[in-house]
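Milestone M4 deliverable, item 7.
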Amino acid sequence: MGPGGLQALVKNGWPVEGRKIVVAGTGPLLLAVADGLKKHGAEIISINEQAPLSRVLGFGLGLLRHPAKLLQGAQVKLRLAGVPHRSSVWPVRAEGDRRVRSVTLTDGRKTWTETCDVLACGFHLVPNVELPLGLGCSLDGGFVAVDEWQATSVENVFCAGEPTGIGGAEGALAEGQIAGHFAAGRREEARRLFTSRARWHQFRAALAAAYALRPEVKAPAADDTIFCRCEDVTFGHLKSFSSWRAAKLQTRCGMGPCQGRICGTAAKLLFATGPESVRPPFFPARISSLLTISTGPATILKTKH
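Output delivered:
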């Protein structure tokens, strides 16, 4: 499962004490997740970063401009002392029966297998832009396009944080403050935060450059790899379709519980096609929540049931 998803499960009580966990993928999140899992009693077998050591070290040196983050990273590394932490290594296969039993890793020259109970694997975070798209906002490189005031292409709609770029809470806070001040008519207050935002945007750019995906992890998967987990659609089955719409019509890919939020992102990377539109509801809603609304669909639900 994804590192962030596993982290959320554990925080909500999913037991990992005594479980053997391999962490793989890319980005600082891997270390943070491994640290959290270890605190909850998991045995971290290894941490495997696909980015080369030179880029990771370069990013680490850049944190001298952000002492708090450098200290935080050093503390995490200290708590993970003794756990193998490799660079230029990525997973190529996970195997098991009713659950994961092992993961095969490679450094491009040799491969090896590590026994585990869980594989936490994730290659970057992606922005959730469903709501901005639903409002008609334009995108730029997959992120919501904003001007210097965090205003989108739609009048009176502002955007801040991860939808505009993956860069951490501090940058998101600066963007949000700028948007709030400007929306309230306080341009000078907003302008005073430009320097802070620029500093965190530099951090964001350095993060993206350091952990850019290597070509090997973008290589097509084996044909029998499950691509859409909700509908059990394999990678090989999808290769014959030229568009996301055609794939959906013929295989139901992207029509399961996650509504393409997982496989849709992978499709854009591997096939240069993916979900073409969004529509409400943007998040699952309970019928009990809808029943509290006095007008609209909830009224129909009340009268029919």
